[in-house]
Design brief:
mainly alpha; flat; 0% strand; Helicase, Ruva Protein, domain 3; single chain; 2 domains
């Protein structure tokens, strides 16, 4: 029985060792400023696989690839705006957590405000109606 447990432990440890070999190599930055800029930029971009995570937090393979591409573009001298434009051209505006205010994104920006105002108007009308009913009932007694 003891030998069986030892075999299981060896199999488990070799599996864990294999997983570490699959891990992405760490990114190498030219300067601490470049690392700060990189971290700021990847926090503004959405992982296309996870969709509710930014590129900085995602472990998806695509996110790892995109982080490498972003760093390569930074090292090639591209600005944040140029990098975002490249990603938007390739993947669409969905990759941006904060899409620009344009005609095509107007509903996205104004939709929550319209819903909030509609809800506030409905609540106000409901309160007004109940208040009126309350006073009408008191007046008829």
């Amino acid at each position: 029985m003891h030998n069986k447990q030892l075999i299981y432990l060896i199999i488990l440890l070799s599996g864990l060792l294999a997983l570490t070999a699959l891990a992405a190599p760490p990114l190498k930055f030219d300067s601490p400023e470049q690392e700060l800029r990189f971290n700021s930029l990847v926090a503004e971009l959405r992982c296309l696989v996870c969709q509710n995570q930014n590129l900085a937090d995602s472990d998806a393979e695509l996110a790892q690839d995109l982080r490498r591409v972003i760093l390569q573009q930074m090292q090639a001298g591209h600005s944040n705006r140029q990098i975002k434009q490249f990603l938007v051209e390739r993947y669409g505006e969905f990759i941006l957590y904060r899409p620009p205010l344009e005609k095509s994104t107007l509903l996205l920006w104004l939709g929550p405000l319209v819903l909030l105002l509609t809800g506030a108007i409905a609540v106000g009308m409901g309160i007004s109606k109940r208040t009126k009913q309350f006073y009408d009932e008191r007046g008829s007694k």
